[in-house]
Amino acid sequence: QVDAVRVYVNSSSENLRYPVLFVVRQQKGVLSWQVPLIFRGLYQRTYNYQEVSRTLCPSEPISETGPSDQIIFVDVASMAPFNIAYELLVTRLENFQLETNKAFNFTASPSQPQYFLYKFPQDVDSVIIKVVSDAVYPCSVVSVQDIVCPVYDLDHNVEFNGVYQSMTKQAAITVQRKDFPGEQFFVVFVIKPEDYACGGSVPSSIPGNVNRTWNLQRTKNLQVTIVPSIKKSVYIQAMFFSFLSFLSFYLGSVVVAFVHYIRDVFRSADMKLTVPFGSVSVAGSGIMTSSHPITASTPEGSSYGAIDESSSSGGRQLSSPEHGPPAGSDTDSSVEEESDFDTMPEIESDKNVIRTKVFLYLSDLSRKDRRIVSKKYKIYFWNIITIAVFYALPVIQLVITYQTVVNVTGNQDICYYNFLCAHPLGVLSAFNNILSNVGHTLLGFLFLLIVLRRDILHRRAMEMKDVYTMDYGIPKHFGLFYAMGIALMMEGVLSACYHVCPNYSNFQFDTSFMYMIAGLCMLKLYQTRHPDINASAYSAYASFAVVICLAVLGVVFGKNDIWFWVIFSMIHVLASLALSTQIYYMGRFKINGRDSDLGIFRRALMVLYTDCIQQCSRPMYMDRMVLLIVGNLVNWSFAIFGLVYRPRDFASYILGIFICNLLLYLAFYIIMKLRSSEKLLPIPMFCIVATAVVWAAALYFFFQTLSSWEETPAESREKNRPCILLGFFDDHDVWHFLSAAALFFSFLVLLTLDDDLDTVRRDKIPVF
C-alpha cells in the first residue's frame, strides 16, 4: 500500500505584500507555495485563496525492511513586520490508490487540487479513466502524469506534463500500459479559477472582500472510475467486420453479373433462332434486339405529343460513317482537349432552332459524334484524379502534424473525439473513426469496376452492331460515372484524414468531396437526356472550387459577421436565378460581350416580359418551369434561413443545400420518367428502395451528435457516448458505414435508372 500525506494550511491574512511562505522538504523533492495563493485569469485578473491543501509526493514501502518512518520538514516564513496567524494540518490519505471498476468520490477546488495513484493490474493493457460531475461549472482539468515528483497540480502548471483535457460534466482519457514503463501513473484533478476555457462567463469584477465566498463557489464534486479498455482481439474482430461487410457487396455484384450473363446467353440463343439477321446486344442491360425501329415503347396519348421525325434525323445522319470514325476507333486518351475536337459548324448553325421546339426528344440533344462527347466527359475523370492528388497530399501532411502535436504536448483539447469510444492504435488516437471510413474506399472501387464492366460491354456492342442501332437508348458516356467513383473513394480518404484530429479548422476535409459528389450526381442526371449541352469539366470543377472557397470563408467569418451572410445570400439567390435561366432556355440565353451594361438588363427584362408576363397563363416549357419554381423557392428559403439564423456549421449548411437540390432534381426526374410511360426495371427499383432505407438509417445515426467543434472541447465532451457496435464503433462510425452503402446505392440508381430505354429509339425518348 502506497502512503500519501496531505498538508492543509489556512491564514486569515489577506495582505498580498507579506504572504506566508510554506516549504515542504521530502526525501524526493521540495514543494512550496504561498498564502494567500494567487491565481491569474483572463485579462490579468487575480483570484486570492487563503485556504490551500496539497498532496505531498507519495512514497512506497520497502518490502525488505518493512514499513519505515519518513521525515518531512515544513518550513513556514513571512517577511511581514507583524505577526500573522496561520493553521497547519497534516493528514494521511486513506484512499490514495484507485482501484479498477470502483467509483471514488471526492471534492476539489483551485487551491485544493487532488491527485491519486493507479497501478495496472497484471491482465490489463489499457484502461479508460472516466470522470463525471453533476455540475457543469466550475471548469476543471483532468491530467494523467507519470510517477515524477513534484506533481504538477495547479492551474498554471498542470499542462507541463502528461496528458490532459478540460472538463465540465464528464471527461474520459484512454491510457495504455506501454506508455508508462513503471506500469502506474497519477490522475490529477485541477479546478480552474475561471470558466471561460469551458465556455463559461468571466466575472465582471472580483472585489477583495468576497474572496472567501468565491473560494466556496469554486468547489466541485467529482467521481472517477477506471475501467479496462478493449482487448486486442476486439481490434481484430472490428477490422474483419469492416472489410467483410463491404466485401459482401463485391460478392453480391458478382452474383448479379453472373445471373445477367446466364440470362443474356439464353436470350442470345433464342434471338439467333428467331432473328437471324441484324440482331445486336445493347450495352448496359445486355438485351438482344433487332435493328428495326421499335414503336411500341411510346404509347399513343403520351403527354409529350409528337412532331415530325424528320426534324430529328440529324442524329442518325451524324452517326453514319460519313460524319465520323468507326465505332471501334474510340479511345480513352486524356491528352486531347475539348476545343481540339468539338468543332461541328453544322451543329452550331441549327442548334438554336432545334432547342426552341416545345417538345424535345433525346435525338435533338444527342447530335454530336459519340466519340467527341465521350472524350469530353472523360476529362471529368482525369481532372478529378489530378484534384484528388493535389488536395489529399497536403491534407495528409497536415493531419499527421496535428496528431504529432497531440501526442507530444498531451493536449487533448486540440481534437474533438468521442473520448468514451476512442480506441488508439499506434500513433492514432481514434483508430475506430478512421477504420469506419474503409467502406467509402471499397465501395467506390467496386463502383468503378461496375462502370468499367458496362463500358467494356458497350464498346463490344458498338463494334458488333450496325450504324442504325446507335439511335437507341440513352447515349453511353461513362466519364462522369468514373469521376463519381473516384470522388467516393476520396471521400473515404479525406474523411479518415479529418477524423485523425477532428476540429473546426479542418472540417472542410470531410465535406469537400461531398460537395463534388452531389454536384457530379446532378450533372450526371442532367447529362442523361442533355448529353450535348451539359457543363464542361473545367467549368464544373471551377464551380466546385468556388463553393469550397465559400465554405472556408464561412467557417472563418460566418459565425458572427452579418456582412458575410448578406453577401453569401445574394450570391446564392443570383446563382440560382442564373442557373435557372440556363436550364430553362437550354443554354440559349447568353450575355454577349458587345452588350452594354444597360443593354444586358434591357434584354433580360424583355425576355422576362415576353416569356413570363405575356405567356403567364401557359409557359412554353411547363415541366421545366415547375421544377425551376420549386427549386428557386427551396434555395431562397435556404438563403433566408442562413441570413436569419446564421448557423455556425457553415460547411454542413452548404452541403444541405447541395443535397436538397439533388433530391429535388432526382424526384422530378423519376416523376417525369413515370409520366412518360417509361418503366422502372427491378434492379433500379431495388436500388431506389435500398437507397431510401439506408439513407434514413444513416441520417438517424448522423444526428446522434457525439461531439461538436462549434463548442469548447469541454462542452463537446458532454455529448460523448460509449460504443454501440462490437464495443468498438460508436454512432458516428455506424453513420460512416451506412452512408458509404447509401452513396453506393445512390450511384447505382443513376447508373441503372434508364436501362429500360435501351431498346427505345432516341427520337421517342422525351427530354425533361
Fold and architecture overview:
The chain has 768 residues and is α+β, with helices and mostly antiparallel strands. Among the domains are: 4-61 and 71-200 and 216-229, Sandwich (Jelly Rolls), CATH 2.60.120; 371-524 and 677-764, no CATH class. The chain is built from 18 helices and 18 strands. The protein has helices at 211-217, 232-274, 314-318, 338-341, 345-355, 370-409, 431-435, 438-464, 479-500, 508-529, 537-557, 562-584, 597-613, 622-645, 650-675, 682-702, 713-717, 731-752, and strands spanning 5-11, 20-25, 30-35, 37-40, 46-49, 51-55, 73-77, 86-92, 104-108, 114-119, 126-132, 140-145, 163-167, 170-176, 184-191, 220-228, 279-281, 288-290. The protein has a four-stranded antiparallel beta sheet with strand order 9-16-11-14, with no helix packed on it. A four-stranded antiparallel beta sheet has the order 10-15-12-13. Helix 6 (370-409) runs parallel beside helix 9, helix 9 (479-500) packs antiparallel against helix 10 (508-529) and helix 16 (682-702) packs antiparallel against helix 18 (731-752). The chain starts with a strand and ends in a 16-residue tail after the last helix.
Q: What is the arithmetic mean of pLDDT?
A: 80
Low-confidence stretches: 208-213, 275-349, 591-598
Major β-sheet strand ordering: 9-16-11-14
Main sheet properties = 4 strands, antiparallel
**Which range does the strand content fall in?**
5-15%
Number of strands: 18
Task: Briefly note the structural class of the backbone.
Answer: alpha+beta
Question: How large is the count of helical segments?
Answer: 18
Percent helix: 40-55%
Distance between the termini: 80 Å
What form results from the Cα inertia axes?
A: elongated
Q: How much is the radius of gyration in Å?
A: 35 Å
